[in-house]
């Protein structure tokens, strides 16, 4: 007997006593979740015909139309007025290199730097050209974390100046909180709050993630943001006139007068510490930007809640429509199909829709199902959705995101990112118990998965959210080599053309992701109390005000 079959039998037997506790009609709905339907939908959505589903291409439009047709045929109501489509206008901005510049001023000495060698700049979305001239101040990690009594800005005045900071955040912070403070959004907002008018950031020397040539090449591809009706870009930070990345091989240019060496700063960083001080230099920086519009859209349908008082509260399921399109050939293939990332999530989403539509009675709260755009470009479609929520009189109370959940082996345990921050953890535990699943901690905290998928767009708006991945537990209750397989997949297949249907997917395991996400959302939708942040939770305190 194959190992996977044996493990499935072990799970089935162990789950029966708990499984029997739920309504027989719900149990029957879960029993009817179809691995073949998941495989079929994945097969179409990751076909070469869709050419990698890049927003702005015909392949993406085919995926959009397919999901719209599935929502219509399943009986969902259109979630954007009379339409299933929410247009998401995107804009790609690129720096005009030969008209952009960085000049260091050291007293009477002026040094012109070379774009792509010592620095590069990020596009400025709010004008064709932006310029800044100001003194430079080093501010450590660029972090102000009052909850942890840490503030890089405490002893320096940066008003009207350009701040210089290094990547990362103090390493003693909890993983999710550290990830929050390490995001560009968090650091940009703090710099603006402190009065800075420009930013220069760099990656510490010897950081394994540092690849200057790779960063420069990605910069050439530009930056994509969603655009408001008045043509202003979302999350564009116009107060920061220029934002630049500096090559860490040339940091001596910035720290020529610093009393603390780069080596000392790295040693301090390793201890979760830093120093802040003026660099005794100024910079003249100019960035010229061109902008190209990219039409795109979210696809959305919903089930109206049955309770007159609660139907204007929405539980939102998301999976992302987009992938990377056609790119550099790998092993003779240039189409980045995105079967696991995230045709799998869309296919699972459609089975969750079917489960809800099979209910004898609609849940109390309304349920929205959304295929969102631009996840690979920075969670753009989900961010647009929460900032332009189409239900004007409604309120989102929870999100469950489904994104390459990993089903190459039987699912015996889950890793529910976000469950330990809100009351959603209670429904997650109940659903896991019903299905005979264990709940495991994050096996790869260094990957900061908590901020890397569409659920984080909801968390940033103060909405409790979940993102569930498979764990690696064996039938004996121990971790297995499946964790090694996950690492290997990420290093060899993730974001390559080999993420297609020629992989050893376990579609029976995929059904478990349908069941657990359905059960959690179903319980949330019928609970008299809306989800809430745990008392004293960092994200609840920080983002839900």
* Rg, alpha carbons: 24 Å
The pLDDT mean sits at 92
Secondary structure tally, helices: 15
Shape: globular
The computed structural class is alpha/beta
Key phrases:
disordered N terminus; Aminopeptidase; globular; nine-stranded mixed β-sheet; Glucose Oxidase, domain 1; single chain; 31% helix; alpha/beta
In short:
The protein is of the alpha/beta class and 545 residues long. The chain is 31% helix and 24% strand. The chain contains 15 helices and 23 strands.
Kindly describe this structure:
- The chain has two domains: about 5-90 and about 295-405 and about 410-545, Aminopeptidase (3-Layer(aba) Sandwich), CATH 3.40.630; about 90-295, Glucose Oxidase, domain 1.
- The chain has 15 helices and 23 strands.
- The protein has helices at about 5-20, 25-30, 35-45, 60-75, 175-180, 185-195, 210-220, 260-270, 340-355, 380-385, 425-435, 455-460, 480-490, 505-525, 540-545; strands at about 75-80, 85, 90-95, 100-105, 110, 120, 130-140, 145, 150, 160-165, 200, 225, 240-245, 275-295, 295-305, 315-320, 325-330, 335, 365-370, 395-400, 415, 440, 465-470.
- Strands 3, 4, 5, 6, 7, 10, 11, 12, 13 and 14 form a ten-stranded mixed β-sheet that branches. Strands 1, 2, 15, 16, 19, 20, 21, 22 and 23 form a nine-stranded mixed β-sheet that branches. A two-stranded antiparallel ribbon has the order 8-9.
- α4 (about 60-75) packs parallel to α9 (about 340-355), α9 crosses α14 and α11 (about 425-435) packs across α14.
């Amino acid at each position: 007997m194959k190992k996977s079959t044996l493990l499935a039998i072990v799970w089935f037997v162990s789950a029966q006593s708990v499984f029997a506790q739920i309504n027989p009609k719900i149990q029957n709905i879960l029993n009817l979740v179809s691995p073949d339907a998941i495989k079929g939908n994945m097969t179409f959505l990751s076909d070469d015909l869709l050419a990698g589903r890049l927003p702005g291409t015909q392949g993406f439009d085919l995926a959009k139309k397919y999901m719209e047709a599935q929502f219509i045929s399943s009986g969902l109501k259109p979630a954007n007025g009379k339409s299933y489509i929410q247009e998401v206008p995107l804009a790609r901005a690129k720096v005009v290199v030969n008209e952009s510049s960085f000049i260091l001023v050291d007293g009477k000495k002026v040094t012109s730097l070379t774009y792509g060698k010592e620095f590069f700049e990020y596009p400025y979305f709010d004008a064709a050209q932006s310029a800044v001239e100001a003194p430079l101040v080093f501010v450590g990690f660029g972090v102000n974390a009052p909850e942890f009594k840490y503030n890089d800005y405490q002893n320096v005045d940066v008003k009207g100046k350009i701040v210089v900071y290094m990547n990362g955040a103090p390493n003693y912070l909890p993983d999710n909180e550290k990830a929050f403070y390490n995001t560009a959004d968090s650091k940009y907002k703090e710099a603006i709050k402190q009065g800075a008018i420009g930013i220069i950031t760099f990656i510490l020397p010897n950081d394994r993630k540092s690849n200057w040539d790779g960063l420069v090449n990605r910069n050439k591809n530009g930056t994509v943001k969603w655009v408001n009706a008045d043509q202003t870009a979302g999350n564009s930070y116009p107060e920061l006139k220029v934002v630049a990345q500096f090559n860490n091989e040339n940091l001596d240019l910035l720290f020529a007068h610093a009393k603390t060496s780069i080596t000392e700063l790295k040693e301090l960083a390793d201890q979760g510490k830093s120093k802040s001080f003026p660099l005794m230099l100024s910079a003249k920086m100019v960035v010229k930007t061109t902008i190209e519009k990219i039409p795109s859209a979210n696809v959305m349908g919903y089930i109206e809640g049955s309770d007159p008082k609660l139907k204007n509260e929405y539980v939102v399921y998301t999976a992302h429509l987009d992938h990377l399109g056609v790119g550099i050939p790998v092993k003779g293939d240039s189409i980045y199909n995105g079967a696991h990332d995230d045709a799998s999530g869309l296919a699972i989403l459609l089975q969750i829709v079917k489960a809800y539509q099979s209910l004898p009675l609609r849940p109390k709260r309304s349920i929205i199902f959304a295929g969102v755009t631009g996840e690979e470009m920075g969670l753009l479609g989900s961010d647009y959705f929460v900032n332009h929520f189409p239900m004007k009189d409604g309120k989102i109370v929870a999100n469950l995101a489904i994104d390459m959940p990993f089903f190459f082996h039987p699912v015996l345990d889950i890793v529910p990112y976000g469950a330990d921050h809100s009351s959603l953890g209670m429904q997650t535990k109940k659903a896991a118990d019903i299905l005979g699943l264990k709940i495991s901690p994050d096996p790869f905290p260094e990957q900061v998965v908590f901020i890397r998928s569409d659920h984080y767009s909801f968390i940033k708006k103060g909405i409790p959210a979940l993102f569930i991945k498979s764990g690696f537990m064996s039938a004996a209750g121990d971790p297995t080599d499946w964790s090694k397989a996950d690492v290997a997949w990420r290093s060899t297949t993730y974001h390559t053309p080999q993420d297609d249907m020629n992989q050893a997917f376990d579609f029976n395991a995929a059904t478990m992701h349908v069941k657990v996400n359905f059960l959690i959302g179903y319980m949330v939708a019928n609970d008299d109390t809306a989800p809430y942040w745990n008392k004293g939770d960092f994200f609840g305190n920080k983002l839900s005000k």
